[in-house]
Write the structure tokens for this entry.
Amino acid sequence: MSWDITKVRADFPILHRNVNGHPLVYFDNAATSQTPKQVIDVIADYYTHYNANIHRGVHALSQEATDAYEKARHTIQNHFNAQHAQEIIFTAGTTHGINIIAAGYSALLQENDELLVSAMEHHSNIVPWQMLCEKTGAHLKVIPMLPNGTLDMEVYETLLNDRTRLVFVNHVSNALGTINPIEKIIDQAHAVGAKVLIDGAQAAPHIPTDVQALDIDYYVTSAHKLCGPTGVGMLYGKSELLNLLPPYQGGGEMIATVTFTKTTYADLPHKFEAGTPNIAGCIAFGAALDYVNSLGLEAIAAYEHELLEYATTQLKKIDGLRIYGEADNKTAVISFLVGDIHPYDMGSILDQLGIAVRTGHHCAQPIMDFFQIPGTLRASFSFYNTFEEIDRLVAGVEKAKQMLE
Ligand SMILES: *Cc1c(COP(=O)(O)O)cnc(C)c1O
């Protein structure tokens, strides 16, 4: 079955605008994806028809809002195949989810416990753990990377020992597109009794993930990279593990009873959902998953892989162009540099041509240090991009090269 790109693109109003006098080419999908009208409509529908605070209201609007919010939680539960709905915690995004776990572990760690982080993490999966180590006296060790942008799994095995408490790694690197072998990472960590947190921010939009089949302990992701709104995400944790963690924030919604002598906490998931959440955003997260599933994640991945292969072949024809991250197994992300041209200069010229790519370190400075570069240009493709758009990128890079060299 071929991909009906015209029909898909019709769902995304923003793809039909011009930028700097040219039709927009949006290749910054790894930073945030665009939003289909099906999801925009769900947000508008909430504010137009049933905007109300959830859970404690006796009135009709509050009931409707609560039902839609909890329905979205079930949609997320089904999508990731969590055993219980209460294992899905709504968050403000991947960063927030990681901070909930990192803060919770400050009550569980002891001095000289060890935590393992991969060399290709987003800053949001590095910094909270460094802060945790400072607080607890635990040590952060790094799983190194090989020159092709994959993890050194042999060293990983040697780093694991009976002091290892937690391993955190992204399923897919946002800067390189590398798909990490999380099944193996998880099995080996479990063999020494360590728990694993998977950062799914880049994987969730492209790869079906079954948290039970993979035996994932904690999983975090954001809605805005899979066609949902910004500022919303989810944290999955096995309920027996989440029950061990203290609440992250105190406030409304997360309590069972409050007195000035003693407050008791609500059960999962509310224990971690203090305050009024982004109700419309959470409902829209569910709608985004419904949208993506209506197209099919496998069909999406297959089409994006074709885009990746085509773009890689075409870009490599450009003299002096180097691609960073050449794992066999990667998503549709291409990080590259051309000659000595600064990525920002080339990115600015591409912008003048209506082409949106990201430039810089992509919140993954250790990767740039590894390659001894200041940053890259990153083109990241989505299922609504076209081969013609890739041709425009290639022509744009050629043009910028002529202007800047
Ligand atoms: C985007 C991203 C994050 C951070 O997500 P936020 O939505 O900004 O919290 C973390 N990890 C990876 C791999 C990402 O791509």
Observations:
- Residues 60-80 form the longest helix (21 residues).
- The chain has a mean pLDDT of 97.
